[in-house]
Amino acid sequence: MKNLKILVPVDFSELSEKGLIAANSMARTFEGTVTPFHSYIPLTDLDGFHYMGSGFTSQQNLTEIEKVMKERLHDMALNHVDVQYLQDPILGIGNPAHSIAETAADFDMIIMSTHGRTGFSRFLLGSVAEKVLRIAHKPVLVVENEKTLAPIKKILVTTDFSENAKAAFPYAREIAEITGAEIDLFHAVIYDNFQTVEKAEITYDIRKKNMKEIAEEYFSGLKVNIRIMATDHAAHEAILKQSKNDDYNLVIMSTIGRTGLDYLMLGSTTSNTVRTVRTAILSVNTEKQIAYKKENL
Question: How far apart are CA 266 and CA 133, in angstroms?
């Protein structure tokens, strides 16, 4: 993750600035760059361009409007990003989530806030952040409280023992190596997945052993703690409970896990975790990151 190229979607709200603050921390840690990004739909956004305080309307010259938007992006970013990391802003036109995902093809990571100009609730389905999580081919770091991200001292890494889940491990290892962070490797045994409590308890012991094997294979040389929880709740609720048990700076997980659910399906563990857990979450899109794992392990 050295020389990390970071794309930061911004909608000019104070809430979206948290992404810039987090990106600056990551750029400083990984000798990276930060590129502010804004996507708009001319026939809708520009008619209400007052949210930028510019007073533009869709009748004005698009080139002039885009010039002002880039200036605003640059000025806003300068308030939070060290000048040596800051790159020229990029504008996109169209659906924000799709525009972010397409632009991110030339970057290593997307960092964005869970809230934006529209003020959507953390629990509201269909947010831009959630859509980006499902369709982006690059890792997405979603932040709510930028102050908890740096310095990164403790990381929660989730697994369901699938190959998909393992795709996130190289990122966790590299971040821990560079920052010196401690890793808690976490798995939840869900009672509802077993016919009897006895079978669940047997599985608990087996998976605890498997967790130790994962720690040795993927995280050797690092400080790793095994955290396994037996629960009758959903996986994301177990992750939420664990996140409250300790002071984590970052949660790292795969977008697709054992269930292999489609990106566009609502209710995935990742989406539910983003809605509930207040720690910064790095989500790795498994489908496109298997190659990364093979190259870097």
Answer: 12
> What is the spatial distance between Cα 143 and Cα 115, in angstroms, rounded to a whole number?
9
pLDDT digits (tens, 9 = 90+) for 59-108: 556 777 888 889 999 999 999 999 999 999 999 988 888 999 999 999 99
pTM summary value: 0.84
The residue type at 5: K
- In our burial notation (b when 16+ CB lie closer than 10 A, e otherwise), range 178-191 reads ebebbbbbbbbbbb
297/292 Cα distance (integer angstroms): 8
Give the pLDDT confidence of 35-59 residue by residue, as tens digits: 999 988 775 555 444 445 555 555 5
* Domains along the sequence of the chain with CATH: 5-147 (3.40.50.620), 151-296 (3.40.50.620)
Residue linked to tokens 């990364």: 292
